[in-house]
Amino acid sequence: MRQYHPMLIPGVMQTTAYAQAVMRSMNGSLPPAEIERRAALRSERGRTWAQRLKESYDGYQGRTAWFVIHLDALRRPVGSRAVQAAQIQRVIELVDQTRAIRVVVLQPPALDDFTAEPYRDGCPGLVGPFVVLDVAGPQRAVFLEHSLATVYTQRPEDVARYSLAWDDLLASSLSPSESRAVLEEEYERQCRMFVTAPTTGHPSSLPHTRRRRSASPSPTLQLEASEYSTASDPTDR
């Protein structure tokens, strides 16, 4: 599986609190109890998915998942600084838990860095969020999610377009070890901003500070579509 999102942490990695905040933003008309139910299901599904992927990888089947996350998705607080910090901590835990999960960060050049190399063919990721799935042998499918609908396609031209977009994103992203360091930095940044904010609560509710550890190289990707696409409602992702 290969997944990119420019604005959010992918659904299978979301904490319950982060998922609740996303759902309130995407569909504020849902009753609070329904948002809580859906968020809990999403979080539980993500934990189950991660455990199965780890077991598959440890069983030498080599099934892995890659995620490209834009730096903005790490810095933009969803729900609150504390919720965002806990969410980044969850991503770090998943990366450290198993080599089957790979996260790289798309970090655009600083606005005042005129020496940075420009992107090869414009800014990657303008195609929007997407998932490329290995469904059977060499066959692939593309999964797209929007606020009103989801799209699942195996048309060769669609798969080729998004596979190329993925290659551009990966080439423009930081390495796994560099991304691991950025995740740690952004976690600490959210913690500092939470502590200094005057109206966000007591710092004791923050996750514990983590110790840095670099990531390892990644093996070949492969994940069946059935293990990812389990939601019928577009907001339940």
TrEMBL record:
<feature type="compositionally biased region" description="Polar residues">
    <location>
        <begin position="197"/>
        <end position="207"/>
    </location>
</feature>
<dbReference type="InterPro" id="IPR043917">
    <property type="entry name" value="DUF5753"/>
</dbReference>
<protein>
    <submittedName>
        <fullName>DUF5753 domain-containing protein</fullName>
    </submittedName>
</protein>
<feature type="compositionally biased region" description="Polar residues">
    <location>
        <begin position="215"/>
        <end position="237"/>
    </location>
</feature>
<feature type="domain" description="DUF5753">
    <location>
        <begin position="2"/>
        <end position="185"/>
    </location>
</feature>
<dbReference type="Pfam" id="PF19054">
    <property type="entry name" value="DUF5753"/>
</dbReference>
<feature type="region of interest" description="Disordered">
    <location>
        <begin position="196"/>
        <end position="237"/>
    </location>
</feature>
